[in-house]
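Take a specimen:
=====
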Amino acid sequence: MPIMDCDILVIGAGIMGLSTAYYLKKQDPSKDIVVIDKYAGPGQGNSAKSEGGFRNMFTSNTNYLLADTSIDFFFHMEKEMGYDLKLEPIGYMWLFSEDQYNGIKGAIEEMKNRGIEFTVYNRSQ
């Protein structure tokens, strides 16, 4: 389809562009959606340069929502769509000074309320 004839043009075939196109099409299957990218294939820009890690522990609610829905989508792609993304949840570790930890106690409590699993260790552990 010529680009000029599409209903929606998504620029960028990385994780953000492809997930945007996917959900737009899912929301309205009648729309003609075209994804373009400067690279020859999908996921070859910044998405290819990532460390490959994922997490949903953020102090910002916006970042949490973006990450959490992305993680859900990754597992959906593996289980329902049959793509082997080689997802392997292994966890993260952050080290904080006592002052830094005291500064994020509210965010930690909020993460606990969201059901995010984590363990806090003190220096003697």
